Amino acid sequence: EFMQAFWDIEAAQDKAIQLLASFVRDKSALPYLLTFTELITFAMKAHADSLKIQVDGCSLLLEILSQALEQDVVVALDENVTSSLLETVRQHSENEELLSLVCTLLMMISASEVAAENLRKVGVIPDLLSILRNFLHNEQICLSCCGVLWSLAASENNVDQAVMKSAVPVTSAVLQEHLQNGTVTESACSALWALSLQGCFSENDYEPTTALLLDALRMNPERPVLVKNACLALASLLRLSEIPALRFITDSKGSGINLIKYAYHLHFDDPDVVENICMLINEIVQYDDVVLDMLSQKMEELLSEIKSSFPSS
Asked: Which residue spans adopt a coiled-coil conformation according to this UniProt entry (predicted)?
């Protein structure tokens, strides 16, 4: 009632947000705090030029949503919330600290299909791409934005393919910039996989993207999620054209066949990784020229090993 009565007074809203933040550590308060999410975003929208309210409001929303996630509580956020966050992004497009908070929030809420659809409606993708271009060095921003792109591109709803196509070079730039950061690389690989499923790649993208995905595997072979994501993205590209297949076996830094052999031996006890490696191999063997190379590199030995370990495969 206090927040609603004094919605136009910045100091009142900020005090209320600070008071609510003091209750976040009390897990029993979560059901009550969830009812404040719209009021918090309304305060942010009403005082869009106040950096303090934006930072405090985003920090509080992050705490509430993180706790809800920990307690497996579903949070329903309507279009007003997503549009308010987008307004924050546009109003403070140069503030790296705030953008890092907002992008993390967007990633968390985009896991919900309804929220993802709301984000799509309010036109968030061009803003995400602009943020990525400006803050390519920021690991948290890159991680979060790629997570949102994955959610939007992986959706079954129709996507704006022209807008999504413009995400390919930006996502590739993220992968190139953060190859040594396994967490960011995982997120970028999953975004590229989703974009490939939506048919967002042009023929000119096939070879450089394949090389990047091989680099991701080469530098982070010990990370099972990354191996799964990279294999899915590579399989999707191989499904589209022989160009990625040829790059896969002739990459100047080493054959992709040796890479997936190594990845299998690291993760032979992880059925999900093995399944994705098999999916990738299945796409490779559709090209006769590549099969000859596979045979010359004794790929049949790996297949026999997989077959003996997973008889039903």
From this structure: none
Inter-CA distances, 163 with 8, 116, 121, 198, 216, Å = 37, 15, 13, 11, 25
Pair of tokens at residue 178: 């953060």
Alpha carbons within 13 angstroms on the beta-carbon side of residue 225 total 8
- DSSP string computed for 178-201: TTT-HHHHHHHHHHHHHHHHTT--
List Cβ neighbours of 23 (8 Å cut-off, separation of 6 or more). Answer: 29, 32, 33
Q: Which of 246, 243, 244, 307 is nearest to 277 (CA)?
A: 307
- If you compute the radius of gyration of the chain from its CA atoms, what whole number of angstroms results? 22
CA distance 287 to 46: 59
Positive or negative: CA dihedral 266, 271, 275, 281: positive
Calculate the CA 188 to chain-centre distance. 6
Is the CA virtual torsion 75, 80, 82, 88 positive or negative? negative
Q: Can you give the pTM of this predicted structure?
A: 0.90
Q: Tell me, what's the pLDDT at 117? A: 84
pLDDT over threshold 70, residue 287: yes
Structure tokens at 200: 């967002």
How many Cβ atoms from other residues are within 10 Å of residue 236's Cβ? 22
Q: How confident is the model at residue 308, as a pLDDT?
A: 76
Pair of tokens at residue 267: 């993760």
The Cα–Cα gap between 285 and 74 comes to 43
DSSP calls for 68-83: HHHTT------HHHHH
Phi/psi at 200 (nearest 5 deg)?
-90, -5
Mean pLDDT of 222-233: 96
Strand boundaries in 49-169, DSSP class E: none
Compute the distance between CA of residue 130 and CA of residue 65 in angstroms, rounded to an integer.
25
19-37 b/e (C-beta count within 10 Å ≥ 16 → b): ebbebbeeeeebeebbebb
